[in-house]
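Hey, I'm writing a tutorial for new members on how sequence and structure tokens pair up, and I'd like a real worked example in the thread rather than a made-up one. If someone can provide the structure for the chain below, I'll link this post from the tutorial.
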Amino acid sequence: MKPTLLVLAAGMGSRYGALKQMDGVGPNNESILDYSVFDAKRSGFGKVVFVIRDDFAEAFKRINNSDRYNMPVEYVFQSTDKLPKGCSIMPNRTKPWGTAHAVLMSKDIIREPFAVINADDFYGRDAFSVMAKYLNECKNKQGEYSMIAYKLKNTLSDFGTVSRGICVQDDRNFLVSVIERTNIEKTNNGAQYKENNEQYPLDLDSLVSMNFWGFTPDFFLYCEEGFKEFLKQNSAPDNKAEYFIPLIVNKLIKNHSANVKVLRSDAEWFGVTYQEDKAGVKRKISELIDNGMYPNNLW
């Protein structure tokens, strides 16, 4: 069975000021998401599952569907009240539960190795090819995960702060840890992140996760159990903590429940965090089309 592409497309787009997952950046109004699906399909992925929200589902399905992509497409929905059995709903919670919670929404429909990506990040053709090859090697295995790594200096925005998973790997290219850092920004000497009102420097050559992960289906079991524990620790009504993928991945690495291979790719990452990033993304896509990497009209 071919691997599945799981696309996290339920984001609010608060810093961007619009729904990035449907915003056109290609010559025929293609979104970044369109290019990811196009790359995944030609790399050997067999199905796409979108994690979306109810409030824009109709518009999203009208554009992003199996007729457009000529491949199977399914949808699952993320909301703050979708919790594991036995967990209490928090009526005052408005902030999304995070990326690992989004992944958990598809546990009932994915039975094969799968990749996870953000809808608003452009990962590049080679990244999908590298990931598809690794996932195909993981059939009938458990706990053999992977991630595509990029250098921090190639993932920063000129227009504001970003969040990135800072990675450490061993000499065999297996992940030792990944820590989600928020409020990362460029400085005159490199980069820094802010935590508890303190600034800390970051090496521009640090490897980072851009949320391009590869998992086998057993990940859902670990993810659900981890989320239950997360909810116990963050049950205050005003708590805004999020259940990020790196949280559960770090736990699995430390207790030796999983290995995470750090995959390197020649592909260039780019994305839109702020509205001002859009012009640069459109320019880069135009260059890729001119170089023959993509057709002028994807679909």
